[in-house]
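thought: fold this chain, then report.
action: predict
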Amino acid sequence: ESPPGTLLENGSFDASLGISGWSVDLATVDPNETPLFTWSATDSPIFNCPASGFAEGRLESILNSAAIDLVSHCVPVGGLEAVRIRYSGSVGGDFGANIIKLRLVSYSGASCDSEQLITSTEVSTVVSPWNNVDLGDLALPPTTSAVRLVFHLQGVICSLGCFVAVQFDNVILSSPSLLFSDGFEGGADCRW
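observation:
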């Protein structure tokens, strides 16, 4: 479901929806190995919401550099000069040189075609333990018509049996400067 105030579909990863509205991109895969890549929405009672899930990405037993992205649907933002991004997240596992970033990708066309790409900006690093992140208002390039959010997980080297995992929930992409800061417009609707 879409919480109030968000432009995203399924930013809460509710158990019944899984990761619908998002796509998985195996950004970099060494053709000589088959590491385990997974993104799933797990049924979890985080924030005391028994029917809510969260998205989890894992990279396991990586012998060479590999990466995986969780990519939102194309979000029209025509007429907006900025957007606001908030999410909850956490990282676990054997860190090494693992990289976990959130990117805001801007397009000049409303369909997010690759030839319409304006810029891909890293706007946040996901950290441990579980915490809430509010990135505030982020300016968009002047010709932006649509955006995507991309959670990027990269494992550089990870020996047999080790892993890195990242979890996300309550991802909100909204118009800038909401009136309330207590969760009313922010999508924390399970607390009401």
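thought: worth noting. Residues 181-189 have pLDDT under 50 and may be disordered.
final: tokens above.
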